[in-house]
Amino acid sequence: MLKLYIGNKNYSSWSMRPWVLLKQAQIPFEEVKLRFDSFEAGSAFKTAVNAVNPVGKVPALLDGDLAVWDTLAIAEYLAEQFPDKHLWPLDKADRARARSVCAEMHSGFGALRSHCPMNIEARLPQVGQLVWRDQHAVRADVQRLESMWRSLLEVHGGKHFLFGQFSIADAFFAPVCMRLKTYALPVAADTAAYIERVSQAPGVAAWISDALAEHDFLDFEEPYRVGR
């Protein structure tokens, strides 16, 4: 059986992507959660993850003796191993667009990542207001997200997911949806509706439920709070 190594569900946006993808597609896998105690060399987390991933990060997917890391590589591997699940869109042009937006997510939106780290349990509208006021780059990131999502949703009816059926692209943007909700960043009605559809997808909803049940406050992940 596939084995997926992840970090804390409340905080680990990178771990969320392949976990949600596997869960949504109903692909059996074993979850191995490595708690974030520290990211310093010699920490329990680093010691455990270094044993399965030479990069020392989560997520990491193990299929027997094969280790696959990096979310894009994991997504591509799963798409190849389970072609019947149609993890990428069926249409050739849509697949190209889906890979393009996933790659953009993978390497971009640095301001939003930096100023609004994922924290599913929290509700931080006051922090979001300050970020929105002071960080032009965050506003630009959100503007780009809305433009991208709107253009894709309009092509596919606007009432489902980015390419009609839930795909790798929606899994990649699920953590962004969490950020936009946590910090209550201002978005248009169609964007808010897409965020809710993603949040209610079974795989995403299962991750959110687990994140809310963790009750594992990590101060180094929350520079804006001193406790819960």
TL;DR of this structure?
54% of the residues lie in helices and 8% in strands.
Strand order of the largest sheet: 2-1-3-4
Cα separation of the termini: 37 Å
Mean pLDDT over the residues: 96
Please write the string of helix (H) and strand (E) elements.
EHEHEEHHHHHHHH
Strand content: 5-15%
Major β-sheet annotation: 4 strands, mixed
Number of domains: 2
Cα-based radius of gyration, to the nearest Å: 17 Å
Which fold name is given in CATH as the topology of the largest domain? Glutathione S-transferase Yfyf (Class Pi), Chain A, domain 2
Shape: globular
- The total strand number stands at 4
What is the number of helices? 10
* Poorly predicted sequence stretches spanning 5 or more consecutive residues: none
Question: What does the secondary structure layout of this molecule look like, with pairings?
Answer:
Blueprint: E1 2-6, H1 13-24, E2 29-33, H2 44-50, E3 60-63, E4 66-69, H3 71-81, H4 92-107, H5 110-115, H6 125-134, H7 136-155, H8 168-182, H9 189-200, H10 202-214
Parallel strand pairs: 1-2
Antiparallel strand pairs: 1-3, 3-4
Helix pairs in contact: 1-3, 1-8, 1-10, 4-8, 8-9
